[in-house]
## 1
Amino acid sequence: MNITVRALNRTALLACAPFLGIMIWLLLSDMVIELSEEAFPQPLTEQAPHPAADIEPASAGLDQAQSTASQTSQSIQKQIKLYNQTNADMAKISAMAASQAMRPLVIYDRNITGKLGKPARTVDSDNIRAQLFYIQAENFKAYALKVKLKSADAMTMTLGGDQVGKAETTLEAAKRHKAIAAVNAGGYADGGGKRYPLSTTVVGGKYATGFESSYSDLFFVGLNEQNELIGGKYLTKQQLDAKKPKFGASFVPVLLRRGAAQPIPAKWQTSPMRAPRTVIANYKDDQLLFLVTDGYNEAGSSGATLEEMQILLKRYGAVDGYNLDGGGSSSLVFNGKVINKPSDGQLRKLPTHFLFFK
């Protein structure tokens, strides 16, 4: 039994001897065993791109963007230049068209002004152009006031003292309202120590004494909201309202319609035959013409006849003409001075006046 165990131990020792020898040799030797990097597993990470690979495309893109921006800028500059040039050309065309459009009006104005003669005085502003002319007829001396209204505030009609029943001279009215020119307006009727405007009278777009239907030879004349002369006989308030009167007064008779002289009623041919006169008329371009004649009295021996006023209106190219209150009422004020020679020796106090503003 002992022999068997000893034999087994010897056999095991002999079998392990080579391995023990190798281990001892490894421990005592300087040999180093190194493993390559490939022997170890690598972490799964994204591979960083090479910087040069990004710079080149980015640089090329930037160059392209700069080129595109430059081309766009040049295109915009060309468009702006073309736009400005087009605007300048259109402005020239518009100015030329406006000039051509105004040319007939300028020629027309030159013609009608030439018929009146050379203006003795002129007031020209953004608001109004008022020209004063002196006229020497065979039987009387007269004055013409040609007015171009350039704004809605260039002309109005006022009541004497701004109240119905009160009266003041045309000069007083002009000074009180600081008007550049003034002319007497409609007729009047006295009663109870007061002086009332005759028949239908409109001031500031409102009826001063209510509406009265036209009768006999009576008419209404004034301006509408477009600064156009309106006038004639109105049987109903609705008829006159349709004209949108801004202001106006009443008197007799109508002298001119569309350039044609109207029949003068027999009464007004002789009562009086001659007298100081005041007439309002218009032109085709809506300019206004006022004629005021002198007369030494109201007895019919001096001044102008209504037929002579019609002749003057037609000679000067007027379209529609209306006779206003005359005699001692005829008044023309220009630049703060009385231009005509009142037959009363002084201006008469009246209930209505046409005023013009610079």
## 2
Amino acid sequence: MAGSAEPRAAGDDLDVRVARELIDKAREEGVSLVGPNGLLRQVTKTVLESALNAELDEHLGYVKGDAAGKVGTNERNGSSSKTVRTDVGEVRIDVPRDRDGTFTPQIVPKYARRVDGFDDAVISLYAKGLTTGEIQAHLEDIYDAKVSRELISKITDKVVDDLNSWQARPLDRVYPVVLIDAIHVKIRDGAVANRPIYIAVGITLAGERDVLGMWVGTGGEGAKGWMNHLADLKNRGVEDILIVACDGLKGLPEAISGLWPQAEVQLCVVHLVRASLRYASKKHWSAITKQLKLIYTAPTADAAEIFFGDFCAEWEEKYPAMIRLWRNSWEQFTPFLAYPPELRKLVYTTNAIESLNSRFRQATRRRGHFPNDQAALKVLYLVIRNPLKNRSNITGKVVGWKRALNTLAMHYGDRLDAQH
């Protein structure tokens, strides 16, 4: 290992020397490093033109000026100028030509007006939540590149094929846990309206989180609507799910039971507590949450029933709607109480999706509304595809997964063993 440090250090020293030489040259000649006539653009022009000439050398079979090495009748035939957009802005370059017109450059392809890296920069800005207008202004301010909104839309539309492939990719046969939640965004469908986008995140047998699918809903989905959404997962290979953790979305439990009869549906406890507090005065929140914690941390379902009886006696007269919420949700809440601690942590909350949803909101907040469903899905897909640096990724591994897997195997051994 010690020997490998020297080449890296030498490379680092070379990078520093080159950078200093560029800065010194810029100072001596009174040239800015950036800007329309900046040194970086001059260097980019030189590098691109050198690369194009090297390509033509290879195509013709001889180096420029080496007439002795010439083979055949084809030869250089001057050059043509064109402007290309690069990461340092617009650069005017001379593209060499051959007499037969058979030279097809790869570095800057014929008719191409953008060099690799420019499109990636636009897509990255789009994924971070900038609108096409903001990207247009950013490119002009930073790179002095005048780019139309239409071009920016075309660049970001390149993602659509990737999105379609991602939406149709095959999935695993069994997922121990699937989390389902929703985010609301404004989409124009005749009129601008808040529309839910449902997100399903699966935990694989290896303990990896993976976004399985996203669907734009109407907000009024019943069991039939959910069957249409979740059938997508079934058609892509999901034959069994052990536990589905979700918010109390209407019709969802029925749809899950229809597609995966053995799946246990578990309401997200955090969502249930938050929904309870909507019916209560803030001055009572502390007392209510303490009593609710006794219920959802109870060692058994029987113990939870006792704590719930005390809770009803305390609050039903004052907040009957809150008590009704718990009674209506009890059937989907109680499976949680049968799980040991390792499993309870996995299905206690859909926070794994909520973390992703916070990034979705950052990317959608500035846009106002989307023109259609696909435009909204495109942005959310880019968020999934481009995880933030130095931030935990939704597709990361579950902490303590081996212990959880052992517990799952004790509870659902036959269904997991079928995988091997």
